[in-house]
Amino acid sequence: MKVIAINGSPRKEGNTFHALSIIGNELKSQDIEFEILHIGHKAIHGCMACGKCAVNKDEKCSVTTDVVNESVALLKQADGFVLGSPVYYSGIAGTMKSFLDRVFYVSGANGGLFRHKVAAAVVAVRRTGGSSTFDQLNHYLTYCELIVATANYWNVIHGRVPGEASQDHEGVQAMRLLGRNMAWLLKMKEATRNVLIPPEREKKEMTNFIR
Question: I need a labelling partner for 136 at 20 to 30 A (CA). Which of 96, 98, 155, 209 fits?
């Protein structure tokens, strides 16, 4: 089994990286492969609302100048993933937001590529805005019918300079427990693969509030 973590921080080894590494160490200790995909420093275009991914249904975004399409393929093959972001103005870092908008839209437009994978969201923050950013990240996971792993608190870790998050003992515990719970969910899902039939996917009902 394999879990891919998305590092949405511009800093390759900032506190988001340290949070993801704590989770990864727990997963690896339970024989689950773990990889961190660093995208926060890259130039990633926002969604253009062209709808081509829904028309073509080739599991690709029409924008081909960045890492989104190769990332979709990697996440599709993974058994689970973790979304990690720092906090910018009480929200998801801009590059990470552009990445998630397109990756998850491609997934949904192509029959739910990530449906029922085990996933989680984590946030690294200096002072405040952690809960709102954590909430925003979870919107992607719950919208696409993923199985969301949890810890014993919200998955937010505090620190300013790179590595300082390791001093947030409660945050470190949350990341460690998240990794442990994620491993349990992955193993439970694997153990019941040939026993329980997953619920059938339903075609989405699309409405608006104009009458």
Answer: 209
Element (H, E) at 92: strand 91-92
pLDDT at 209 over 90: no
Contact 35, 5 (CB under 8 A): yes
In terms of pTM, does the model score above 0.85?
yes
At 7, which helix (H) or strand (E)? strand 2-7
The residues with which 141 forms a beta bridge, in sequence order, are none
28 lies in which domain range?
Answer: 2-191
Could you tell me if 51 and 19 are in contact, meaning their C-beta atoms sit under 8 angstroms apart? no
For residue 6, the domain's CATH number is 3.40.50.360
The length of the chain in residues reads: 211
In 3D, which of 52, 58, 88 has the Cα closest to residue 72?
A: 58
Count structural domains, the chain.
1
**Residue 111 φ then ψ, to 5°:** 85, 15
Q: How far is CA 140 from the centre of its chain?
A: 8
Strand locations in the chain, DSSP E? 2-7, 33-38, 80-88, 91-92, 118-125, 147-148, 156-158
Three-state DSSP class for residue 117: coil
